[in-house]
Amino acid sequence: SDVYKRQAWVNITVPCKKRKKETKLGQVSKNKQTVRSTNSSDNSKIIWAFDNLDNDGCFKFDVSREDFEHQEVLDKIIKYSSMTWREILQQTHDGGKSKHLFLRYESLSGEAQMRLQSKKLEEASDSIFSFALTNLLRIIGIRDKEKFHVLWYDPEHKVCPSKRR
Q1: Cβ neighbours of residue 140 closer than 8 Å, sequence gap 6 or more
Q2: Cβ proximity of 129 and 25 under 8 Å
Q3: Is residue 47 within 8 Å of 146, Cβ to Cβ?
Q4: CB-based contacts of 25: which residues, under 8 Å, 6+ apart?
Q5: Which of 19, 61, 85, 132 is within CB 3.0–4.6 Å of 35 for a Cys-Cys bond?
Q6: Residues 88-94: contacts with CB within 8 Å, 24+ apart?
Q7: Alpha-carbon torsion 91, 145, 150, 152, what sign?
Q8: What is the per-residue pLDDT across 73-113, written as a single tens digit (0 to 9) for each?
Q9: DSSP line for the chain
Q10: pLDDT tens digits for 11-67?
Q11: Rounded distance, CA 139 to CA 106, Å?
Q12: What is d(CA 37, CA 14) in angstroms, rounded to the nearest whole number?
């Protein structure tokens, strides 16, 4: 019947992986495209959590650091608190050069990978999120639904250094 035929054509979305389109029941097409997963909490406002701060290493989140930009950090935390995750993910800075994004474990610096291991957070490595506060300044943490668990302060963009093009 026509109803059965319409139901046989479906899209399968796998979070943060390749999207595959089923052409017929059980057959997967070779046309693939990359998609970003849509988190069910993307329409929720961010909740900041400071329960997982890293107090050691060069990325420690410590307000007594000489290079801690208190005004910039507090202003951005207040601003982002009124936004949804979807709005945050759409933002760019510095003429589109910087944006907030999820980080891949493999792209982290050796020091950042060691810090995750020492805090026993490897299992959360697919949820590491970077807030771009300025061109270089980042706050890195773990996104868990609407919560953002702050982990590191990265004033020189060294947790996940970008490769110059």
Answers
A1: 59, 103, 112, 128, 129, 130, 131, 151, 152, 154, 159, 160
A2: no
A3: yes
A4: 8
A5: 19
A6: 88/46, 88/131, 89/42, 93/132, 93/134, 93/135, 94/134, 94/135
A7: negative
A8: 999 999 999 999 999 998 877 676 778 999 999 999 999 99
A9: -HHHHHHH--EE--TTSEEEEEEETTEEEEEEEE-----TTTTSBPEEE-SS---SSTTB--TTSTT--HHHHHHHHHHHHTSBHHHHHH-EETTTTEE-EE--GGGS-HHHHHHHHHTT-GGGGGGEEEEESSSS-EEEEEEETTEEEEEEEETTS-SSPPPP-
A10: 333 344 433 344 333 343 344 333 344 567 899 999 999 999 999 999 999 999 999
A11: 18
A12: 7
Tokens standing for 70? Answer: 């208190």
Q: What are the tokens at 160?
A: 């996940």
Single-letter residue type at 133: L
